[in-house]
Amino acid sequence: MARFQLLPAENRFFDWFEKGSANLLGIARSLQDLFDNYELLEAKIRTISDAERQGDFIGHEIHDLLVKTLITPLDQEEIRALTQSIDDVVDVIEQAAILMRLYKIEQPTASARQMAAILVACAEQINLAIPLLRDKKNFDTMESHLREVHRLENEADTVRRNALEELVANHRDDWFEFMRWKEVYQLLERAANLCEDIADVLQTVVVKNG
């Protein structure tokens, strides 16, 4: 009898994972909107911070569910790693948005807009991959999304390198301009790296459970 009572809790893990990936996609799109339509900064950054708090709430709910559940659909370590990796991306995206206001950046660069678009593409692939956790039959399909995240992360790294080269070439004598954009680019590229961490966790699940 107890086994059947635990099944809804197991299903709720997948529900919360999907809410987390949807929130990640939402905050990535909000960052892209901030960069592409650079106006109403306070309101847009507030929207991004609201999404970060929603991400924290989702993480707490998963943690609480994990404490109460004896039989989990994935290893507890995998659940924690997936939850943390999604939350990490959301946190870094918020940090990047806040830096735009903190450093009083007048307009995003083309490279920053390009990196924001790459983050949205990564989040879209993750949001497509996460629901496939519910059924092992979908794991082959999931792997194609994970490969695309890896490709996009490499693309983000290339954009960051090119952007830093442009900074060195054109702003080496303007310390403040160089440092503020260097920090923004590093956060954007870190967010892409952390998206790859999500893909790595999902790949581990596929290998162990496929």
Commentary on this structure:
This protein has a single domain, classed as Phosphate transport system protein phou homolog 2, domain 2 (Methane Monooxygenase Hydroxylase, Chain G, domain 1). The protein is 85% helix and 0% strand. It contains 6 helices and no strands. Helix 1 runs antiparallel to helix 2, helix 2 runs antiparallel to helix 3 and helix 3 packs antiparallel against helix 6. The protein is globular. The N terminus is likely disordered.
Search tags:
mainly alpha; Methane Monooxygenase Hydroxylase, Chain G, domain 1; 6 helices
Derived from helix and strand composition plus strand pairing, the structural class reads: mainly alpha
The arrangement of helices and strands along the chain is HHHHHH
Net shape: globular
The proportion of residues in beta strands is under 5%
Helical residue percent? over 70%
Count the beta strands. 0
CATH architecture label name:
Up-down Bundle
Radius of gyration: 19 Å
Report the average pLDDT across residues. 92
Given as residue ranges, the uncertain stretches (5+ residues, pLDDT < 50) are: 1-6
Largest sheet: none
Number of helices: 6
Count of distinct structural domains: 1
- CA-to-CA gap between the ends? 28 Å
The top-level CATH class is Mainly Alpha
Annotated CATH topology: Methane Monooxygenase Hydroxylase, Chain G, domain 1
Classified in CATH, the superfamily is Phosphate transport system protein phou homolog 2, domain 2
